[in-house]
Amino acid sequence: MCDMSLSYWDLKRIKAFFDFFSLMTSLKSSSSHSSNSRSPSLNTKSTTNTFLYNSSLPALSITNKPSNGASLYHTCRSVLEKLSLVPNIEYYIDYTTDDDTTPSNKLWTICRRRFPLTALFNASDPQEPLSVDPSCTQINECKKSIYHFIVACKNQLGIREDDLFTLSDLYKDNTNRFVKVVSAIDIILQILEE
C-alpha cells in the first residue's frame, strides 16, 4: 500500500498552486468577457495587464529577503548523496525508518546516531581519529560522542565555531536550527573533496 502522507509544507505548496490556478482562471475569464464586447473602448486597460504589470513588488528588508540558496529539502538531498560516497556511512544512509520519508528527516536521523558523524570526521584522515562504540545506543553517550565530534572539527579541521552546530541544534525538533547542522556537514564534505 502506498504511503500518501503529506507534510505541512507539501500541503502549503499544493494550496498555493490551486490559489494561483484559480487566480489565473479568473483573470482569463475576465479578459475573455471584455474581448466579447462589441464596442471596446480605446481608453480602457485590460485588468490582466493592470494586475500583471502594475502590481508592486515587496521591498527587501531584514525579514523579506531573497533566498540565498536551495531549499532545505534539496540541500539535505545533496548532502545525503555526498555522504553516500564516504566510507562506512553507506549502511546508515540505506537504513531507513518510517519517519525518514524526506531527505531532511533521514539526514536528521543519521546525524543523531553519532557513528556516521564520527565516520565522516575520520574520513578526513585527522591526526587523532575519533573512536566510538557502534553498539552503544544510550542518548547521553550519543550526545557525548557528538560533542567530541564538534570539538574535533574545530580543533583538528580548523572549522570556525560560527560554522559549527551545538547539541541543541541537532537534538531540538527545530528545522531552523537543523539548517546549521546541515551547513556544518556540508563544510566537512567540502574539506573531504579537496
UniProtKB/TrEMBL annotation:
**What superkingdom does the record give?**
Eukaryota
**InterPro entries noted in UniProt:** Cdc24/Scd1_N (IPR010481), CDC42_GEF (IPR053026), CH_dom_sf (IPR036872)
Pfam families from the UniProt entry? CDC24
Which residues does the UniProt record annotate as the domain Cdc24/Scd1 N-terminal?
Answer: 103-189
Q: Which GO terms describe its cellular component?
A: cytoplasm; division septum; mating projection tip; nucleus
Q: From the UniProt record, give one GO term of the biological process aspect.
A: septin ring organization
Identification of the protein by name: CDC24-domain-containing protein
Whose protein is this, by species?
Rhizopus microsporus ATCC 52813
